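User: I'm preparing a small set of examples for a lab meeting where we compare how different chains pack in three dimensions. I only have the primary sequence for this one, and I'd like the structure in token form so I can line it up with the others. Please keep the answer compact; I'll paste it straight into my notes.
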Amino acid sequence: MVKIVELKTNRSLIKTNFDGYKLSLESVPVIKVDLEINQHPYVRKIPVDQYSFLHTELFSLQNFLVQDPWNREHSYFVGGDGSLIYCASYKESTGRPSPLKVVYKFSEQQTPELTRYNFSFKFISEKYCVLCDGFNMLQLFDTSDRYKVTEWKLLSSHKINENFEGFVLKDARLDVFDGKKVINCAFQHIEKCGSKNINQIHWGKLFEKPEQTENVWSWKLEDVLLGSDLIHYCAFEPKSASIVICSNKNITFQSNESKEKEENEKEDSKEKHVETKEDSNEINNNYEWSQSEDDVVISFKDVEYENKNNLKVICTDKTISVLHYDEYLLNKQNLCQQIDPELTTWAIENGSLQITLMKKDCTMWPYLMENDSKVTQDTAQNLEMDNKPTVNLETPLEDCDVAFNSDDEYYIYRINLELKEVTHQVPLGNNPPLFSTVLRPGFPAAIATRTDVDASLWLQHYNPLKPEEWALRHEGNLHAFGYVQASKQQKKYVDCAPDMGYSVISEPFRHVFIYKSKYETANNLRNRNGPQISLGKQSLITLDSNSEVLGMSCGINFITLLSEKCLLFIQLNKLNN
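Assistant: Understood. Below is the structure token output for the 577-residue chain.
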């Protein structure tokens, strides 16, 4: 049974007297480093045949500047027409960037023309890095001492999946079991199924084989997770027994769907031996139906039901069949929305058959089945009420409070990879996560959600001795940032400092907004006849370069921006005053 987990805020992290941000007119130092032509970041534009919203999100929001969590002064990107990996360094001690260094050069066989998506990589330890070439190749590197920025060594290279092309690395995690290293990897792939595109997460493992001198690492694709909408967050938990995914649609395993398909085919073959009346797929109109937010009740009245043994009700998550003797009252009719077939019940009351279906989503249905014009009397009224905004006289709604698609409900799913089922579920309401960021090296990425006007950061709290007690721990708060970011319509990258001392929003062109929760020169302010208030500091940076921002990384006292033609280092030391 899925356990519902509630996000419990730590009241000590919330600043109740915070009264917003004050714009500072102080200049913020920005160091610009122009890139040579062979140093320009390699970015593959979205192809003509990949035109869906999923493709647009995947290509446009990818961060091409990857920061080293173990040494935040170093950030890396792929340049040189997709043939080189560069290291961009900023020394906080001197306040100056170091010259770009090439840490790895790809072979001539791996040309950019072969790539379908862009390069993506992730540092999984102080020594290892996992890279996906955007086509079908997984590569593991020994990065040696990254503090000295030495040349990387390729340890192994494997094809992710022989049957698919085009992958982006979503997460990778290194664990050690019985002295042997195991690397779990999750790759995103967008596959066209009929008239729509779906998200696929290909999950596999890299195994270390220390007894061999060559081909020390072996790759095994374990399974494929399927989702029909955006994947807002994807990270393995410690020890990689489960994977945590945030989406507004259910996540299923491809292997489970194959089993269900085989079972349905067997059931279909059995039903072929049952004689049915002609035109059995037509809807029997001798029924009435009613609904609430939780369930649907179907009643058949014009047929005598003296014995329930002569009745058979078969339900899946989207269809219903009702068999009376050898005649179908309903035969595999497609329902309006999904139901939970395990909770379906039926009974005979006063000579009539009543079937109760439990909805998966607590929404009102405009109709019961496809090609059916029957609508309950209260359905239209309920639908009109659903479209009306909730009235709150104390805190009126503003434009930035309304979600992009208010009909969507977002959830964080904790999925057990061995059992292949969801064990924990965190409801987020109508607002998707704001962003995710790595606060500590070696830990899963923290996820930021909107809590009233604030942005709360949550870390996975995992106890290997009691895995059923999994939860999300409130790690920190960005005061009023949830409200601030909702008002930015042109935002591209959103992040915060590792110590959560500041948050930053970067637009694709020209502007960068920095928000620091403490404004030292604005202390001891009070509202008229009120208590003392606290103000934050907002800094606006206008970039001289007209090229698009392609990546961003945050340190304690600096921000690194990667654009099409230059690197920008924003110095934040003065903001601490």
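A couple of notes for your slides: The chain has four helices and 39 strands. The chain has a mean pLDDT of 83.

User: Perfect, thanks.
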